[in-house]
Amino acid sequence: MNSKVVLWLQHHETRLFHFVNQRIQHHFLDHFFTRITHLGGATAAIMVSLCLACFGQGSLRLAGLQALIALTASHIPVAIMKKKYPRLRPYLVHPQAITHRNPLTDHSFPSGHTTAIFSVIVPFVYAIPVLGLILIPLAGFVGLSRIYLGLHYPSDCIVGCLLGTTASLLTVAFWG
């Protein structure tokens, strides 16, 4: 890619990161994002999917199984990309970045939390489309929380969204 284009993209991504991470800071958002971000963590994603796979009925049970498969499949490219593209987390690059409790130190690209939440929600939205009214914005807030908390750049979350959604759509198509 042309170096001017890359520099332009990096500049604007950094500006967007600083806007979300510093300009929209608010006490309410601090509490909201530090809690909602955990929905994309391994514990929540695995527990919700596993509980519904084991104890759900009908389409919810199938969606739980599909979510587990998609969650597993989506994290293979995440692990590969984190090794191949060792991008430092924004708070390590930008000293003025605002971080909250226990900032991560592994690589930033792509966002595993965003990948996880999108890989888990898609089968449930496919099974019960009206859930999309709640689950899609919820997943978007998880991705936004990663930027707000200083842990990811916007492109980390966008790629995570694409990886999780793609893994889920393929899983639903093949195990539907």
Automatic annotation (TrEMBL):
Keywords: Cell membrane, Hydrolase, Membrane, Transmembrane, Transmembrane helix. It is a multi-pass membrane protein. Pfam families: PAP2 (PF01569). CDD domains: PAP2_like (cd01610). The chain crosses the membrane at residues 36-55, 62-81, 116-145, 157-175. SUPFAM superfamilies: Acid phosphatase/Vanadium-dependent haloperoxidase. This is Undecaprenyl-diphosphatase. It comes from Paenibacillus qinlingensis. One of its GO terms (molecular function) is undecaprenyl-diphosphatase activity. It is an enzyme of class 3 (hydrolase). Residues 62-172 form the Phosphatidic acid phosphatase type 2/haloperoxidase domain. The lineage of its organism: Bacteria, Bacillati, Bacillota, Bacilli, Bacillales. Its EC number is 3.6.1.27. The keyword Lyase does not apply. The keyword NAD does not apply. It comes from the Bacteria. It is found in: Cell membrane. InterPro entries: PAP2/HPO (IPR000326), PAP2/HPO_sf (IPR036938).
